[in-house]
Specification:
mainly alpha, 2 domains, 17 helices, 5% strand, EF-hand-dom_pair
Length: 339
Amino acid sequence: MSNDDDVGFLSLAHNLRSRIDNAFHTALTSDQRGSGTFTVGLTHDTPGGFLLDDDDSMAGGFLPPSPPAAVRGSRNECEGDERPSYIPLSRIPHALQLLDLPPDDEDVLAVFRNAATGWGDDHISAPGSTRRGRNTVATSEEGDETEERVSLRDWRAVCAALMDDSRGEEGVEEGGDVDIEEDDDAGDIDQNSSSGLGESSSDEYHDTSAVAKSRKRPRKSTSASTPDHKVTRKTRPRKTQSVTPRRGDSVSESAAMEITPRQRRECLQAFLLFFPGVPEDVAKLRRLGVRELSAAATVLNEKIKMEEMIEMLDAFSTSPDKTMGLSEFEKMMVAARLA
């Protein structure tokens, strides 16, 4: 663990720090295994800064043959450094999903985009990366694609604030009715103490922690009072969003994941929107088909082709009539990273 990690990350419990790091490397590993996009820019053709002599010239000397040892040493060092320290921006939603955090929160994604484009060039270059000004980008095998990336240090800093935020919300839900004024006072004290500890850190993390922690109060005050508004905001633009997995992704990868309680709640709220006026217990037993999708598109004034509806239903439906129940709808939402 680096000494210059964010103070908020270092203050987390060991198991939370491990979860944050594991999500980072798991999302990156699945991307490399699925698409083979990123390559390691290391070669062993020239193991050192000298030329190897012929075997005859080395015979009979007093010194042991050092070039093979140097080769082995450099390979060991490469193996120890092969674990990447950067993750592409396209894998950030999947990594957030592994932590049971909303993968499509624009505020959070904006922080990661700023981390990929706005920080300095002082990080150690990861394998397969090239430096272009202040940005760190990844190059594909074909050499025709570049993508900005986020460092492990920035990932830890943002997730530390998000995990601390989510733990606070869980405490409010479990405790029932909580005095909001007392919670706000505690939040002010917590922010003052954390700002005092972070005075010696670099300026780049003030922006990260400020944006992430500023989301605390609005989420606590509005999540319980206006649930309908929250669902509408998150689901309206999703009706026309493609659920076809991108390159390197797979439906089985996301569908095999265990659906968390938070994801089930969001999926149920979205599923009920297709059956307005129907009681929740009855709507849970309904099945979603082309008719319901067309009605939702009409309400939202969106134009969706019939072929697209059938393709989506065919990809996730296990029924002969190509309709989806609530369980299949949950798998689709998780696979499309909408929950």
